[in-house]
């Protein structure tokens, strides 16, 4: 029988552990979230994050800026948050409006407050095995895999997608777990054949239900990172992953659903990173 990996339940447990630790602190960790523009999907995530941040006993600072915010204004806000002792974590919601330079905005975030793990410093720390802040979604994937596979040594992991936010850091983490890692992307030849050799298959592509059932090796552990909103019946929309779940689930050994898989873990890991950053910053004061 296929086992469904319940990311929602795992994330609830993780948040309870975070809340218990926050309650022992003499200060309140603070997370600042910056949202530029009116993207409705982003707004939902920001609202969810703010609610859960407060629930675990942290301060949530929301900065909603208009879509026509200038580069200078955004950089000034990030600098102000860098200097604010009540702020331990800074998250700038991506993607930014096209007129803004994402790279320079990320580069302005203090690496010690970079709870998304997106700065060059934290990416370098992850690649070299040093202690830093690990991107939330990849960290969530790792925690789910560790909870479901006692030892990943020697397993073949195929990661589809090579973004700085998801694919690359996932591959780094699985390499640290002694997996043999193959990174696949839009130029990969015979992707279905490659996927069929994967003991662990991570899909972070952004293409609804691209990974078909017959791409999955029987018994493989499938982690579906994709969050795609697609039309459903009666003019409504629904969320689907990058894996054709109905086809893949009976073949996989274990699989994450969408919603209720990696998504909730991302927010829990964001809170965990904020706690980690707060403890390090306060210890250094
Ligand atoms: N669950 C969560 O919490 C989160 C979910 N997401 C979701 O995860 C997905 C990936 O996000 P992100 O990494 O930011 O996306 P990006 O668009 O930055 O990267 C997508 C990657 O997929 C690859 N790709 C695209 N088309 C194909 C194809 N036909 N075959 C093989 N590879 C392909 C691209 O290859 P190339 O480099 O060659 O272009 C690229 O490396 C999205 O659905 C996103 O919504 C993202 C963040 C958090
Ligand atoms: N700087 C930055 N960091 C990010 O990590 C980041 C970002 N920008 N931009 C957008 C993407 C997307 N993302 C999600 C987080 C949680 C859910 C989530 O909680 N999903 C739930 C519910 C979704 C719903 O029902 O609406 C689920 O999958 O069960 C989804 C998507 C983080 N991202």
Automatic annotation (TrEMBL):
One of its GO terms (molecular function) is methylenetetrahydrofolate dehydrogenase (NADP+) activity. InterPro entries: Aminoacid_DH-like_N_sf, NAD(P)-bd_dom_sf, THF_DH/CycHdrlase, THF_DH/CycHdrlase_cat_dom, THF_DH/CycHdrlase_CS, THF_DH/CycHdrlase_NAD-bd_dom. Its EC number is 1.5.1.5, 3.5.4.9. Residues 135-280 form the Tetrahydrofolate dehydrogenase/cyclohydrolase NAD(P)-binding domain. It catalyses: (6R)-5,10-methenyltetrahydrofolate + H2O = (6R)-10-formyltetrahydrofolate + H(+); (6R)-5,10-methylene-5,6,7,8-tetrahydrofolate + NADP(+) = (6R)-5,10-methenyltetrahydrofolate + NADPH. GO terms for cellular component: cytosol. Catalyzes the oxidation of 5,10-methylenetetrahydrofolate to 5,10-methenyltetrahydrofolate and then the hydrolysis of 5,10-methenyltetrahydrofolate to 10-formyltetrahydrofolate. This is Bifunctional protein FolD. The gene is folD.
């Amino acid at each position: 029988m296929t086992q469904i990996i319940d990311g929602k339940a795992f994330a609830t447990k993780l948040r309870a552990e975070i809340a218990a630790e926050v309650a022992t602190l003499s200060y309140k960790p603070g997370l600042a979230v910056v949202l530029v523009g009116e993207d409705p999907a982003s707004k939902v995530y920001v609202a969810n994050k703010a609610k859960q941040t407060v629930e675990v006993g942290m301060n949530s600072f929301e900065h909603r800026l208009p879509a026509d915010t200038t580069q200078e204004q955004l950089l000034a806000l990030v600098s102000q948050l860098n200097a604010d002792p009540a702020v331990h974590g800074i998250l700038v919601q991506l993607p930014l409006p096209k007129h803004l330079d994402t790279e320079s905005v990320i580069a302005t975030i203090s690496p010690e407050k970079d709870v998304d793990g997106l700065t060059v410093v934290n990416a370098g720390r992850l690649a070299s095995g040093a202690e830093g802040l690990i991107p939330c979604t990849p960290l969530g994937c790792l925690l789910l895999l560790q909870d479901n596979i006692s030892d990943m040594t020697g397993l073949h992991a195929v990661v589809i997608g090579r973004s700085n936010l998801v694919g690359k850091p996932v591959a780094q983490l699985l390499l640290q777990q002694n997996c043999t890692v193959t990174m696949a992307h839009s130029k990969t030849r015979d992707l279905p054949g490659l996927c069929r050799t994967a003991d662990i298959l991570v899909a972070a592509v952004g293409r609804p239900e691209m990974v078909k059932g017959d791409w999955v090796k029987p018994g493989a552990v499938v982690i579906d990172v994709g969050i795609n909103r697609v039309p459903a019946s009666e003019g409504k929309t629904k969320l689907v992953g990058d894996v054709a779940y109905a086809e893949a689930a009976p073949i996989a050994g274990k699989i994450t659903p969408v919603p209720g898989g990696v998504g909730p873990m991302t927010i829990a890991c964001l809170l965990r990173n904020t706690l980690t950053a707060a403890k390090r910053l306060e210890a250094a004061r």
